[in-house]
Design goal:
The chain is α/β, with parallel strands linked by helices. It is about 35% helix and about 15% strand. The strands form 2 sheets. An 8-stranded mixed beta sheet has the order 1-2-4-3-7-8-9-10, with helices on both faces. It has a two-stranded antiparallel sheet with strand order 5-6. The radius of gyration is 20 Å and the shape is globular.
Length: about 325
């Protein structure tokens, strides 16, 4: 619901991407993808900076324009911030990156698809060429949770492409985020003799998916993201022994290679190229993400990487209001120079 009914309403335009990179993907997901694009009131996009929104797990970019009862959707938030002159006019792309496993981490995966390449090589060029926005030094990426992880990894791996990034409550310190969840995953798979296909077949057949089921799906998707096995069903293999829940060193090592803390230790200095880097996390985050965020903040300080780091008293849920802090910083940085 709009909070400022006097704010001029921007336009939400729908583009369609026929992805070449997603053709023949292991999950059988459609290569044709919807990309909603927000245009500020009075602008056709030409010459404006571009921000790309990476949504959290179990969501999709087009959902960002849905009506909300006691909160703003993203276009309404952008309208309000621009009308209040807190946010320079900016184009915001909302790509559909959903997969059969509930989403992705916006990295290249032999199971989920080459999503890092899809974003840079297909989604962004489609938006920039159609609307004449963005371009080198004038494009940024932001997101929360899995989207925050994706935004941070995009900046770490491709600092020549992105000029600004915001990570809200992103996945960090995998031993704190994922390790505590594997015993529950094994309990969920046990009635199916630990056969992933059997569990997924039952999941897809249910008339209603419950919260616990969705959490199991998320962990399976993480396995397909960080340690995919193309020969396994949907590329999923577990990093733990199904009988004892002991870590399989090789499997877990592959997970840790994708922990942003590992990547930042090796490639963090590339972030010096960014015009703006924003990181935040709630002090009550129920997935232990606060401690990883603090570790990243400390690591970037040691490396001399300029960034904005903030903590706030809240948990992991319904924290879109934090975009009021990050988006103006990103848009201002991209609007100058």
């Amino acid at each position: 619901m709009r909070r400022d009914f006097d704010a001029p309403a921007g336009e939400l335009r729908t583009l369609w991407l026929d992805s070449q990179l997603l053709r023949g993907n292991l999950l059988g997901d459609p290569p044709r993808r919807r990309v909603d694009v927000y245009l500020p009131a009075g602008h056709d996009g030409a010459g404006l900076p571009l921000l790309v929104d990476l949504v959290g797990f179990l969501s999709g970019g087009p959902a960002q324009g849905n009506w909300r009862n006691f909160g703003e959707n993203l276009p309404e938030r952008l309208d309000r911030l621009i009308a209040a002159k807190l946010l320079p006019p900016v184009v915001v792309a909302l790509p559909d990156c959903f997969t059969r496993l509930g989403g992705n981490q916006y990295i290249n995966s032999a199971a989920l698809g080459p999503w890092a390449d899809v974003l840079r090589q297909e989604v962004v060029p489609l938006v920039e060429n159609t609307l004449r926005c963005g371009g080198a030094g004038r494009r940024g990426v932001f997101g929360k949770s899995s989207g925050g992880y994706g935004a941070l990894m995009q900046a770490l791996l491709y600092p020549d492409f992105w000029a600004a990034a915001a990570c809200h409550s992103g996945d960090l310190a995998f031993e704190l985020v994922y390790l505590p969840e594997f015993p529950q995953l094994l309990r969920a798979l046990a009635p199916h003799r630990f056969e992933v296909k059997a569990w997924l077949d039952e999941f897809y057949a249910k008339p209603k998916q419950k919260g616990g089921d969705l959490h199991t799906l998320m962990l399976l998707a993480m396995c397909a993201s960080f340690d995919p096995d193309p020969s396994a069903y949907y590329g999923i293999r577990l990093p733990v022994d199904t009988h004892t829940c002991e870590l399989i060193p090789e499997r877990w090592h592959n997970f840790l290679k994708w922990d942003p803390l590992t990547v930042a230790a090796e490639r963090g200095r590339g972030l010096q190229q960014l015009k703006q880097l924003y990181i935040d996390c709630g002090t009550l985050d129920q997935y232990n993400l606060l401690y990883g965020a603090r570790r990243l903040h400390r690591l970037l300080e040691r490396q001399g990487i300029a960034h904005v780091y903030e903590e706030f008293k809240d948990d992991h849920s319904s924290t879109d209001y934090r975009l009021d802090h990050s988006l103006p910083l990103l848009a201002r940085a991209l609007s100058h120079g």
